[in-house]
Amino acid sequence: MMNFAKLGAIGFGLWGLLHIAGAGLVLSATLGSEPADGYAIYGYDGGPLPGATSAILAYFAYLLALSGAAALAVAIKLNWANSQAGLAINSGLVLTIEFGLIVFLIVPGHLSLLESLPGFVFFAIGAIFGGIACKRDPSHA
């Protein structure tokens, strides 16, 4: 028999790992020798940028890593055990982060929908399979 709770936890966990890895990529690029190095991943090829700009991008990477770590921790601790609270926490967290991605990066054209697809797919796997698991066995708080 298929364990939907575990599939949902894997989806949310992969979303978390993807965002931790992405944050690491952004942070390592930001900490390059020139302030503009951190923007190379966004296709920026202009002149030097103020140091504060790189610091803001590094802070973004830090927050992205924290979001990924939180989603991963909830997936391991709560979603794996088919917790309704875990499903609500991770669905709310991930949906909030993905909403910001859509509004600030996809809609203005800085990031394509195709480039964003892995995160959306992992979220869908987590939410759909986690929801099925909680619907089938609602006894877990």
Describe what is shown at a glance.
Helix content is about 75%, strand content about 0%. By secondary structure, the chain is mostly helical.
How would you explain this protein's 3D organization?
The chain is mainly α and 141 residues long. 73% of the residues lie in helices and 0% in strands. The chain has four helices and no strands. The protein has helices at residues 4-30, 51-79, 84-106, 113-136. The mean pLDDT is 88.
Number of strands: 0
Shape: elongated
Helix run count: 4
Whole-number average pLDDT? Answer: 88
Low-confidence stretches: none
Helix content: over 70%
What portion of the residues fall into strands of 2 or more residues? Answer: under 5%
Rg (CA only): 17 Å
Q: Major sheet: size, sense and barrel closure? A: none
Task: Please give the alpha-carbon distance between the first and last residues.
Answer: 22 Å
Features of the shown structure:
single chain; 141 residues; mainly alpha; 4 helices; 73% helix
Topology:
Elements: H1 4-30, H2 51-79, H3 84-106, H4 113-136
Helix pairs in contact: 1-2, 1-4, 2-3, 3-4
